[in-house]
Amino acid sequence: MLDQIKGLHHVTSMAKDARRNNEFFTGKLGLRRVKKTVNFDAPDVYHLYYADGAGTPGSVMTYFPFPNIGKGRHGVGEVGTTVFAVPQGTLGYWEKRFADEGVKDVKRETRFGEERLTFSGPDGDSFALVETKDDPRKPWTKAGIPADDAIRGFHSASLRLRDGGATEELLKFMGYEEVDASGNVKRLAIKDGNGADVIDIETLPGAPIADLGAGSVHHIAFAVEDRAKQLEVRKALMDTGYQVTPVIDRDYFWAIYFRTPGGILFEVATNEPGFDRDEDTAHLGEALKLPKQHAHLRDYLEKHLQPLEG
User: Fold this and answer.
1) Which top-level group of life is the source organism from (predicted)?
2) 2 falls within a domain
3) Which of 31, 117, 128, 152 is packed most tightly, with the most Cβ within 10 A?
4) How many domains is the chain partitioned into structurally?
């Protein structure tokens, strides 16, 4: 069993409208936009990052907003619900805020003894807030949400699968342990992780196969401390039979990717170098930052990318 992985690093999803996406996460959820850059493979499309104040791994939600993308279809073979942690006793605040802000599909429920508030993003994305106790992570507080109520980072994510057995074995190999089960949901967690260290496997044998589009999670990334730990994980996965990409420089972390038995795209990302490598922490996410291979496109992109504010 591996011990290098400490929980989630980021979750990357698809959207249709960049401005609406930015307003939802920075306005309604009160997260900080920590990076405004572009898709490495499609530089005319943004890659937007939202997180706590520093872009701490385990708090980072990222989006590719493709203007002409169709709506995704939820089903099996995808990340289901992305779950954020909030302090105990704050769901009432969020229920009122969501009602005032017009957030859709808000519903309170309990899972594994935890109070949750489920809701939808602008493209039908599946989200939840979970009340957690004594979370030491510091929230972003300059978006008008009181520190005592604000999001701390990720709590967990769920994986929707027709048969969760092989993916459960993979997660256990990656350092997760089963901690609970209820109905068709099995909960796994990493002991002494980074706070974003829970995965729920939802087994849905009769559900349709998911179809990627706006509102879908593109991939889910797990955090390791540095490149040396990442290489250890890569070798172990390859020795086990997984087809893993070479290490790819994503400017703010190094990444490797592989497909799970259930078809979900997993990434293992480094905590280094971080989102302040090309911007002062006080000004994260303000300027358009371009990968060096796309720097020559700056004039074109600044004219043609949709303004995020205004």
Assistant:
1) Bacteria
2) no
3) 31
4) 1
